[in-house]
UniProtKB/TrEMBL annotation:
<dbReference type="InterPro" id="IPR000515">
    <property type="entry name" value="MetI-like"/>
</dbReference>
<keyword id="KW-1003">Cell membrane</keyword>
<feature type="transmembrane region" description="Helical">
    <location>
        <begin position="109"/>
        <end position="130"/>
    </location>
</feature>
<keyword id="KW-1133">Transmembrane helix</keyword>
<dbReference type="Pfam" id="PF00528">
    <property type="entry name" value="BPD_transp_1"/>
</dbReference>
<keyword id="KW-0813">Transport</keyword>
<dbReference type="GO" id="GO:0055085">
    <property type="term" value="P:transmembrane transport"/>
</dbReference>
<keyword id="KW-0472">Membrane</keyword>
<feature type="transmembrane region" description="Helical">
    <location>
        <begin position="78"/>
        <end position="102"/>
    </location>
</feature>
<dbReference type="GO" id="GO:0005886">
    <property type="term" value="C:plasma membrane"/>
</dbReference>
<feature type="transmembrane region" description="Helical">
    <location>
        <begin position="12"/>
        <end position="35"/>
    </location>
</feature>
<feature type="domain" description="ABC transmembrane type-1">
    <location>
        <begin position="74"/>
        <end position="263"/>
    </location>
</feature>
<comment type="similarity">
    <text>Belongs to the binding-protein-dependent transport system permease family.</text>
</comment>
<feature type="transmembrane region" description="Helical">
    <location>
        <begin position="244"/>
        <end position="263"/>
    </location>
</feature>
<feature type="transmembrane region" description="Helical">
    <location>
        <begin position="142"/>
        <end position="163"/>
    </location>
</feature>
<dbReference type="InterPro" id="IPR035906">
    <property type="entry name" value="MetI-like_sf"/>
</dbReference>
<feature type="transmembrane region" description="Helical">
    <location>
        <begin position="184"/>
        <end position="209"/>
    </location>
</feature>
Amino acid sequence: MARPNPVVKIILVLMLLFIAVIALFPFFALLLASFKPSTELLRYGLNLKLQAHLLSFKNYIYLFQEGAKYLIWYKNSLVITIIGTILSLFFSSMVGYALAVYDFKGKNVVFILVLAVMMIPMEILMLPLYKLMVSFKMINTYWGVIVPIMVAPVAIFFFRQYALGLPKELLDAARIDGCSEFKIFFNIMVPLMKPAFGAMAILQAMGYWNSFLWPTVILRTEDMFTLPIGLSGLLTPYGNNYDILISGSLLTILPIIILFIFFQRYFISGLTVGGVKG
């Protein structure tokens, strides 16, 4: 196998670095703006001017002051994201696995319904889902946000596609050894589906973490708001706290970055392998 040309390799690395700098430019501008007062932002907008006399931690201090709701919103978002992601991975993987492995009456109909639900916008489902949450008395609760989107059609489809590529011989061998179906799934199939779990963990967590419309409908009191709802309240007809909004928004990126660091080795393999099976 021929070794790559060093000159081509250097050029490729420089091109990728240039693209990375362009992609990160908005983030650097936001990071710098988070230390500036709102008057400076309204006057000059986002820029990369490093004016040391204007930089301070006042915006971040305000977020954590006594009486500020930011930490409460952060906690609400974390609770909803963690519980919602775990339950979504659990139930969606089981449904996708069942559709891929087992043969039962109506299997194709169920799969077609899953595909159909994927094509329906959330806005169309909001009214019936809201009435359902009222009946279940889940308004202004964590469960009211989590339950309606807990079993995600996209995740079901992804897990099904991934499970189609798993060796069926392992299932037969496990059954011969006397394993139950649940034991086969949790002890044999789940470890083999780690890349799929890693990819879906990032996507589902981002979905819950960034969700705005549905939590806005369900959550009523300020103590139950999530970060997107709480931060959006900083922009009002009576004044726009862009400095606080930018500082708070930057801190919301941290959990997603941490999650991606932990699951990044599974992310690409999970998407590429699961996306072409079946």
